[in-house]
Write a structure and sequence with these properties.
Strand order of the largest sheet: 1-3-4-6-5
Helix content: 10-25%
Order of helices and strands: EEEEHEEEH
Distance between the termini: 36 Å
CATH superfamily: Nucleic acid-binding proteins
Number of helices: 2
Strand content: over 45%
Radius of gyration: 22 Å
Shape: extended
Length: 160
């Protein structure tokens, strides 16, 4: 199976940074991502906004906490996960969220704002890859050796 999400959106609040007992940084944030479409009945342009919760781990969480803030536009790659829990009334609850594996800082909503994250506009940060992660077929193909020998075949030798 392949589970990858690609999104561009604006942070709806600053990154909330916490640490696990083992010292791993965990950042939580949400983004708003817009989609513009043409209504088929009224022929009017309409806009739909999705609010998506995201989680990021390790050094990437600390970097995001330092350089991006509410309103900052980011590009992210991640995977979709289902978060399940039981609320205080005993009712089972769930929601989808994104676990981020790569993020690129695109800037802020207010381009006149002079904050440190504007100087980091084209930074790219990728979560360190674990050796046990499986590569996608496309990644395996790209990393395959390209030492393909030339074969001298005449067109008449091909059976079709």
């Amino acid at each position: 199976m392949f589970n990858q999400v690609t999104l561009i959106g604006n942070l709806t609040k600053d990154v909330e940074l916490k640490y696990t007992p083992s010292g791993t940084a965990v950042g939580s944030f949400s983004i708003a991502s817009n989609r513009t479409y043409l209504d088929s009945v009224t022929k009017e342009k309409k806009q739909e906004t999705m609010f998506i919760e995201c989680t990021v781990f390790g050094k990437m969480a600390e970097t995001m906490n330092q350089y991006v803030h509410k309103g900052s536009q980011i590009f992210l790659l991640g995977r979709l996960v289902l978060d399940q829990w039981t609320d205080q009334s005993g009712q089972k609850r769930s929601k989808h969220k994104i676990v981020v594996s790569e993020v690129k800082f695109l800037g802020s909503r207010d381009s006149n704002q002079q904050t440190p994250h504007n100087n980091q506009q084209q930074n790219n940060y990728q979560q360190p890859q674990n050796n046990y992660q499986q590569q996608s077929p496309a990644q395996q193909y790209q990393s395959a050796p390209q030492n393909i020998p030339d074969i001298d075949i005449d067109e008449e030798d091909i059976p079709f």
